[in-house]
Amino acid sequence: MKKIGITETILRDGHQSLIATRMTTEEMLPALELMDNVGYNAIECWGGATFDVCMRFLKEDPWDRLRKIRASVKNTKLQMLLRGQNLLGYKNYADDVVEYFVKKSIANGIDIIRIFDALNDFRNIETAIDACKKEGGHAQATICYTTSPVHTIDGFVEDAKRLKNMGADSLCIKDMAGILLPYTAYDLIKRIKEEVDLPIELHTHYTAGTGSMTYLKAVESGCDILDTALTPFALGTSQPATESIVATLSGTEFDTGLDLSKLGEISNYFSTVKEKYIKNGTLDSKVMSPDANVLIYQVPGGMLSNLVSQLKQQNAMDKYKEVLEEVPRVREDMGFPPLVTPSSQIIGTQAVLNVIMGERYKMVTKETKALVRGEYGKTPKPISDEIIEKILGSKEEVITCRPANRIMPELDNMRKEMNGYFEQDEDVLSYALFPGVATEFFKYRQAEKYGIESDFTDFENKVTIV
Ligand code: CO
After folding, report:
1. DSSP state, 407?
2. Ligand 1 center to 203 CA (angstroms)
3. Fewest beta carbons less than 10 Å away: which of 231, 254, 263, 458?
4. pLDDT in tens, 208-239
5. How close is the Cα of 340 to the center of ligand 1, in Å?
6. Residue 456 pLDDT greater than 80, yes or no
7. Spacing, Cα 206 to ligand 1 middle (Å)
8. Which pairs count as long-range contacts for 406-409, CB under 8 Å and 24+ apart, including other chains?
């Protein structure tokens, strides 16, 4: 009998997708011991947007959160999501930063690192995979699932083979937008299982209302592990619900071995947490109702809630539909990148600008330029000369090497730049990823520590578009 593993996402993707990653460490702590006793394959609790949001909005040290979680979760593996050479930021970092970040993540408690590159340019995940293995971590290499004229099942199978050859301990098929349909999932996973001997974990979102069906077909096709979120932070733009999947597979050859009553107890707790976010308006009903538009626009859950909040801040919610329609056009112009951080933010922000300015590419962000210039890596389809000229002015600037080859070691300089804010070795990494945000956070932390009045009351509202 094959036991299906369940990775619980409520501490990371669940709340990232529904409440813009605002769940605090304090709100997590009371549930951790119960969660540790469930028998999950892993608990995803760190990485993704959690790192940025901790410092930027919650005034928390993300490293401290990880250590606190590790202290309570003694038996279950802790998993994080890492954007390859982008780490948890939005650009490529030097190899020394990537290596040190991976080392410190594992030293502070992470067991499994799911590593992806937004363009599926695997040159961008090599350093992180090697570092993870060197530190004794489990390197889960990722294929970002997307559809386009240049993405095929054969192509994804080749990707899987390459990832195995790069040393991956397991594979993740990351369907960040919730567009992987049940029968495609079946064909895709069956093909990969036939040709690559590695455990496969499937990650989807319930955005279009298809996620649970996709999981069922995936399980039938040989998938080993599923990502789910406990009911209070499941469905909508989040994952299929843990309890529903566990109940569905219970007593079959795919039983998860998890106990529904234990899960219910934890969900009862998180329901009280959810109440707060309903009351304060953070949980927008828009992200909770099934949206089949995602099948057309491919906008992932996190991006959808970001677009909503960007447009609300600009008082331009009436442009929502127009922006959604502009997203796939910008994506085609950019060579069909999968929409996932950071490409989702780049494409999303550019789509917002194209609509709000009333003319396409009248205003171009520096990230759009970097993407076109090849600074994020190779796009699935080459970008047309016409778009390159329009955005860069000249074709000469485009690069084709692994982008990080052009970045000199950064850590020593970062340490010098930080002058005085060090409380722990890890601070240099927080600073390397988000210099501005980290500096403000360090000031706040210092003020708190010494009981000094701090003038950072407006901290939360400073940065809007990322
Ligand atoms: Co996700």
Report:
1. -
2. 7
3. 458
4. 999 999 999 999 999 999 999 999 999 998 99
5. 9
6. no
7. 10
8. 407/92, 407/93, 407/94, 407/95, 408/94, 409/94, 409/95, 409/96
Beta carbons within 10 angstroms of residue 451's beta carbon: 7
115 with 57, same domain? Answer: yes
Distance 424 CA to ligand 1 centre (A): 30
Q: What's the pLDDT score for residue 4? A: 98
The pTM of the full predicted model, rounded to 2 decimals, is 0.93
My answer on whether 172 and 211 are in the same domain is: yes
Ligand 1 centre and the CA of 455: distance in Å?
A: 35
Question: Are the beta carbons of 163 and 141 closer than 8 angstroms?
Answer: yes
* Helix (H) or strand (E) segment spanning residue 42: strand 42-47
Q: Say how many Å lie between the CA of residue 204 and the centre of ligand 1.
A: 6
CA 175 to ligand 1 center in whole angstroms: 7
In a domain, 344, yes or no: yes
Three-state secondary structure of 178-217: CCCCHHHHHHHHHHHHHHCCCCEEEECCCCCCCHHHHHHH
Task: Specify whether 193 is located in the same domain as 227.
Answer: yes
**pLDDT digits over 376-413, tens only?**
999 999 999 999 999 998 877 899 999 999 999 999 99
| Residue 155 and residue 72 in one domain | yes
Check the CA dihedral 279-177-180-111 and report its sign: negative
Instruction: Report yes or no on 165 lying in a domain.
Output: yes
Q: pLDDT for 156-181, tens place per residue?
A: 999 999 999 999 999 999 999 899 99
DSSP string, 73-133: --SSPEEEEE-GGGTTSSS---HHHHHHHHHHHHHTT--EEEE--TT--GGGTHHHHHHHH
Ligand 1 centre to CA of 397 (Å) is: 33
Which positions ≥6 away from 371 have C-beta within 8 Å?
334, 337, 343, 346, 379
Residue-level pLDDT at 301? 62
Residues 267 and 300 in one domain: no
- Using the mean position of ligand 1's atoms as its centre, give its distance from the Cα of residue 135 in Å: 25
Distance 176 CA to ligand 1 centre (A): 4
